């Protein structure tokens, strides 16, 4: 299994994507390796969602947290899903459930929050990268909506950075599988 | 290429299949390709064609900015899967001359439209270009300044060199490098704006201190 993008590394990727100057110090805490942002003044921030939202505000790209109330809620929901389910689960069974959930959700959506690109897409992309790399061609086709979304996000300017480009075959091979 | 007749159920089905693994008609951003196909569809596709419907709703959300989306509109037949025959312009083949004439004039109109579009784009590009501040070309130059002999006061020499001031010229670090027989040369870094300061001018000004400077060379010249 490919190494997962986690914690500090992921936040550094996000930092670069947001065009922040960097220089933040990240650490990890506890058994589950919760990322921590150390700051010079006051207590540090704990947790992926908290730090990510902080960075987005710092970069003044609040639209990444959603514009309408519904979008904001959906972004929150998927960030929570990302932290609790994608980070939490590691068995084959968990992975299947995650992909199935996402596949259903993305059937009628281009981005996780509907029609706009948000933080949820970014962090879900980083969280799923190691899973997608290992999928077989057949699985990629089975979770077609996830594949389409993933391929879209990895081509979104600035998102992929040094992560490997996951290849999706243009012609479907298993046309009657779904 | 093409989707066939997008007003028919069969055409929509082709579009649906095409969009199953794509977010947009072309590439990874909404473009005029999407608008062209969007406008060719009578209304929202039926719910069972959920890929087409998802795309339709997404493109609809760009309706207000549709003129500013990138790309140039092409004929409908240029989009879509490669293995479907283009039927959007082929129907006139079997008809008589009148029809062909009509088609011809249609073509002309289109080219005029394309011309207008091109001109618009050119104007847009020009205005964009003029707004963009010109990039200032800078170079980093390493100069070797050689004194007359070992009795030349190198500190004074450096002071003289650094006293040269010009618009677009910034002196950097320097060091003394021994060349032999106790003689040292001054190696000094400077950054210049290419348009304002040339090496000729630098040489002229530096060799003007003829009490101290025997000669001057450009050791390295790098564009930044």
Automatic annotation (TrEMBL), chain A:
Gene Ontology process terms (BP): positive regulation of DNA damage response, signal transduction by p53 class mediator; translation
Domain of life: Eukaryota
All residue ranges annotated as the GST C-terminal domain in the record: 54-177
The keyword Acetylation belongs to this UniProt entry's keyword annotation: yes
Residues in coiled coil: none
Gene3D superfamilies linked: 1.20.1050.10, 3.40.30.90
Main location: cytoplasm
Family annotation (Pfam families): Arc1p_N_like (PF21972)
One Gene Ontology cellular component: cytoplasm
Localization annotation: Cytoplasm; Nucleus
Protein task: Positive modulator of ATM response to DNA damage.
Subunit structure: Part of a multisubunit complex that groups tRNA ligases for Arg (RARS1), Asp (DARS1), Gln (QARS1), Ile (IARS1), Leu (LARS1), Lys (KARS1), Met (MARS1) the bifunctional ligase for Glu and Pro (EPRS1) and the auxiliary subunits AIMP1/p43, AIMP2/p38 and EEF1E1/p18. Can interact simultaneously with MARS1 and EPRS1. Forms a linear complex that contains MARS1, EEF1E1, EPRS1 and AIMP2 that is at the core of the multisubunit complex. Interacts with ATM and ATR.
Protein name listed in UniProt: Eukaryotic translation elongation factor 1 epsilon-1
Gene source species: Junco hyemalis (Dark-eyed junco)
Organism phylogeny: Eukaryota, Metazoa, Chordata, Craniata, Vertebrata
TrEMBL record, chain B:
UniProtKB keywords: Elongation factor, Protein biosynthesis
Domain Translation elongation factor EF1B beta/delta subunit guanine nucleotide exchange: 138-224
UniProt xrefs under InterPro entries: eEF-1beta-like_sf (IPR036219), EF-1_beta_acid_region_euk (IPR018940), EF1B_bsu/dsu (IPR049720), EF1B_bsu/dsu_GNE (IPR014038), Glutathione-S-Trfase_C_sf (IPR036282), Transl_elong_EF1B/ribsomal_bS6 (IPR014717), Transl_elong_EF1B_B/D_CS (IPR001326)
Sequence ranges assigned to domain Elongation factor 1 beta central acidic region eukaryote in this UniProt record: 102-129
Compositionally biased tracts (Acidic residues): 95-112
Source species, domain of life: Eukaryota
Pfam families the UniProt entry points to: EF-1_beta_acid, EF1_GNE
UniProt-listed Gene3D superfamilies: 1.20.1050.130, 3.30.70.60
Molecular functions (GO terms): guanyl-nucleotide exchange factor activity; translation elongation factor activity
Region (Disordered): 80-115
Entry GO terms, CC: cytosol; eukaryotic translation elongation factor 1 complex
Assembly, per entry: EF-1 is composed of 4 subunits: alpha, beta (alpha subunit of the eEF1B subcomplex), delta (beta subunit of the eEF1B subcomplex), and gamma (gamma subunit of the eEF1B subcomplex). Interacts with elongation factor EEF1A1.
Chain's role: Catalytic subunit of the guanine nucleotide exchange factor (GEF) (eEF1B subcomplex) of the eukaryotic elongation factor 1 complex (eEF1). Stimulates the exchange of GDP for GTP on elongation factor 1A (eEF1A), probably by displacing GDP from the nucleotide binding pocket in eEF1A.
Family: Belongs to the EF-1-beta/EF-1-delta family.
Full protein name: Elongation factor 1-beta
Organism: Junco hyemalis
